[in-house]
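Subject: Predicted fold for 4Fe4S-binding SPASM domain-containing protein, 113 residues

User T.R. writes:
Posting the sequence so we have a shared reference for the thread.
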Amino acid sequence: RWKGIADDTQPHIWYDYHHIISNSSYSEYECEQPWQRILVLANGDVNRCSCGTLFPDKIMGNIEYDTIESMWKSDYMNHLRWCHENHRSELIESCVNCPMRIEWILNRNKKKV
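User M.O. replies:
I've generated the structure tokens; pasting them so everyone works from the same file.
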């Protein structure tokens, strides 16, 4: 159904990990999404990652007013990439409790046991 419209479509399964883990500010985590993907929402807002839309700081712009190239190369995205590259993603509020980050922490902690 989406052939020719999108490269890939996937359903999202949401989990609430907040009751499982109390400290999700591990700085070793490096998210790949700032270099890989964006998410265009039904209203045209462009989200910087596919880990949910609950945080307003994830919105890069809107395809009605901004080009994808300008959003992708923006100071906002460059700062986000810098934070992840330099293991400082805890500076980004929405990244601290990101489901992918928490999943990584949980898996990392299992390996230590």
